């Protein structure tokens, strides 16, 4: 009963205090950081500058012999690591003439991407990885954008590398590489399994007359799972080329922007893509109607349309800067409806219609 009335954190502290008092243990903070295995058994990635002699001793490659370059004549169709199977690349000699074998593992590509933004500041500088004057001008990065799953690891590694570069280096004082972080959502889709508990692709299932999902091949029952981030392993992916061939790339982009705020997951929907396609057709139709409209001498509603367009330009600009892309789509829907009314009522001059519509088409370009 000695923990009654305490919060979890308060209870933990009290338990630790009693354990220490009774000499049953000591207070210790543990971190969930683990060693990072940076080697990969594949061709792409930076070669690890280590060689091995006949005794199996690891010997660092001397600085004058760096960088170690990957071979161009590699067979990517071989089983296992192509570098391990290469007939000549891994065999080399030290300056003493001693025969050695190169390390055939390559570095995890995170080793490159964890500091590429520093290299971009001085991409043509050959004396060193970066030029300090360039770093002072460009760093830190203004905006970091990435998916949640990727950004968590990459962000951690990047910050680690910056601290490593700044260690005992008073001239390099950029410990935090990014000013602002924005994590975008993932594209999600329902998951499907057959009766043998095997994953199915969306194009392998269909609805029967009762509205239930079945396999196209043998008409067997399909188990519908939760909507999860699209993954090759779960097969809940959609072929983008097939969708683009049907609806066009702009329809796919429009749907993904309009579905939800960019920081939230997008629930993939064929109906949503179809609706986006139809709206883009409406925009195209309205564009042709404005271009081919008979001249109207009336200028009654010119000022109203001009004000509305100016307001739309302001709102779209503001929402783009704030990553509120779904609100941008709503802004376009709103101004489309207004233009449609102005075309029908013939109380707006053709000159104003065309001039203001040109501004809207420019807004659509991003």
UniProtKB/TrEMBL annotation:
One Pfam family linked to the record: tRNA-synt_1
InterPro entries reported in the protein's UniProt record: aa-tRNA-synth_Ia (IPR002300), Leu-tRNA-ligase (IPR002302), Rossmann-like_a/b/a_fold (IPR014729), tRNAsynth_Ia_anticodon-bd (IPR009080)
GO MF annotation list: ATP binding; leucine-tRNA ligase activity
Alphabetically ordered keywords of this record: Aminoacyl-tRNA synthetase, ATP-binding, Ligase, Nucleotide-binding, Protein biosynthesis
Keyword Nucleotide-binding: yes
Stretches assigned to the Aminoacyl-tRNA synthetase class Ia domain: 12-190, 229-269
GO terms under biological process: leucyl-tRNA aminoacylation; mitochondrial translation
EC numbers, comma separated: 6.1.1.4
GO CC annotations, alphabetized: mitochondrion
Family recorded in the similarity comment: Belongs to the class-I aminoacyl-tRNA synthetase family.
Protein name: leucine--tRNA ligase
């Amino acid at each position: 009963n000695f923990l009654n009335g305490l919060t979890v954190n308060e209870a933990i502290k009290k338990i630790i205090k009693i354990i220490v008092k009774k000499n049953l243990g000591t207070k210790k903070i543990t971190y969930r950081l683990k060693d990072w295995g940076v080697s990969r058994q594949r061709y792409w990635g930076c070669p690890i500058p280590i060689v091995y002699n006949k005794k199996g001793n690891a010997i660092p490659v001397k600085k004058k012999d760096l960088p170690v370059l990957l071979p161009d004549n590699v067979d990517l169709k071989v089983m296992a690591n192509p570098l391990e199977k290469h007939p000549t690349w891994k065999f080399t000699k030290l300056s003493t003439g001693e025969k050695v074998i190169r390390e055939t593992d390559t570095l995890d590509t995170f080793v490159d991407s964890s500091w590429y933004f520093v290299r971009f500041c001085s991409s043509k500088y050959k004396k060193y990885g970066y030029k300090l004057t360039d770093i002072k001008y460009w760093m830190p990065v203004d905006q970091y954008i990435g998916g949640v799953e990727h950004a968590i690891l990459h962000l951690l590694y990047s910050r680690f590398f910056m601290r490593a570069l700044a260690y005992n280096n008073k001239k390099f004082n950029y410990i935090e590489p990014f000013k602002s972080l924005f994590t975008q959502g993932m594209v999600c889709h329902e998951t499907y399994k057959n009766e043998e508990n095997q994953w199915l692709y969306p194009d392998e299932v269909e609805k029967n007359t009762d509205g239930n999902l079945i396999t196209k091949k043998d008409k067997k029952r399909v188990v519908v799972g939760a909507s999860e981030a699209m993954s090759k392993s779960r097969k809940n992916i959609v072929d983008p080329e097939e969708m683009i061939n049907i609806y066009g790339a702009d329809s796919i982009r429009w749907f993904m922007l309009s579905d939800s705020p960019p920081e939230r997951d997008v629930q993939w929907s064929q109906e949503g893509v179809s609706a986006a396609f139809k709206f883009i057709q409406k925009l195209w139709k309205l564009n042709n109607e404005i271009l081919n409209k008979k001249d109207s001498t009336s200028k009654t509603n010119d000022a109203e349309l001009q004000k509305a367009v100016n307001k739309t330009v302001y709102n779209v600009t503001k929402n783009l800067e704030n990553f509120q892309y779904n609100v941008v789509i709503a802004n376009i829907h709103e101004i489309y409806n207004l233009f449609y009314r102005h075309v029908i009522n013939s109380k707006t001059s053709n000159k104003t219609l065309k001039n203001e519509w040109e501004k809207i088409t420019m807004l659509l370009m991003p």
